[in-house]
Amino acid sequence: MQMINKNNNAAFRSPASPASRRRRRHATLAAVAIAAALYAKQYIFKSAKYTADGDGFVTRLFEGSSAAFKEALGLRPATFRKLLSELQAHAGYGPTRNIAPREHLAIFLYTARWAATSRLTAVTFGHSTGTITSSFKRTIQAFLRPEMYQKFIRMPTSDSPVPDRIRRDPSVRAFSAVVGAVDGT
C-alpha cells in the first residue's frame, strides 16, 4: 500500500494567492490568443498560393520568338494554332470557367514537353494542382475522341522501320524487339 502524503494531495494544499491565480489566468489567455492567431493565419487570412498568370504566360510565349515558343511547348506557334483550331473544330474543345482553350493546350504541351509535375505546372501557370490535373485529362480526352485519334495518332505496324536515332542508341538495345515501348512509335 502506498501512503498518501498530505502535502502532495491537492485537497490538502493551501489555496493559491490571488496574484498566482491571476498569473495563471494571464498565461492561459496568452496561450489561447496565440493559438487563435496561428489558426487565423493558416485558415482565415489566406494569401494566394499561385500568383502566376497562365494566360499571361501563353501570351508572352506568343509575343516572344518562335524558337522560345518551340523550346517551351515543343512546337512552333503556327503549329500550336493549327492544332488548337483542330481540337476546337473536331473535339469540341472549348473554354472552361477559368481557362481558355489555348491555355489548356499549353498546359498539356508544357507538361508533356518537360515531363513536369503537376506542382511545377501549377506554379508556372498559376492554377491549383487539381486544375492542372483536370486540364491535362481534358486535353487527353479531346485527343482520344475518334475524330482526333484517327486523324493524328498512327500506331506502327510490325514491319515499320525503326528510326536511326533509336537503332543507334545503345541504351535501348535491350528493347529492340519491343515496338513502341521506348521511342513512342
UniProtKB/TrEMBL annotation:
<protein>
    <recommendedName>
        <fullName>DUF8040 domain-containing protein</fullName>
    </recommendedName>
</protein>
<dbReference type="InterPro" id="IPR058353">
    <property type="entry name" value="DUF8040"/>
</dbReference>
<feature type="region of interest" description="Disordered">
    <location>
        <begin position="1"/>
        <end position="22"/>
    </location>
</feature>
<dbReference type="Pfam" id="PF26138">
    <property type="entry name" value="DUF8040"/>
</dbReference>
<feature type="domain" description="DUF8040">
    <location>
        <begin position="53"/>
        <end position="144"/>
    </location>
</feature>
<feature type="compositionally biased region" description="Low complexity">
    <location>
        <begin position="10"/>
        <end position="19"/>
    </location>
</feature>
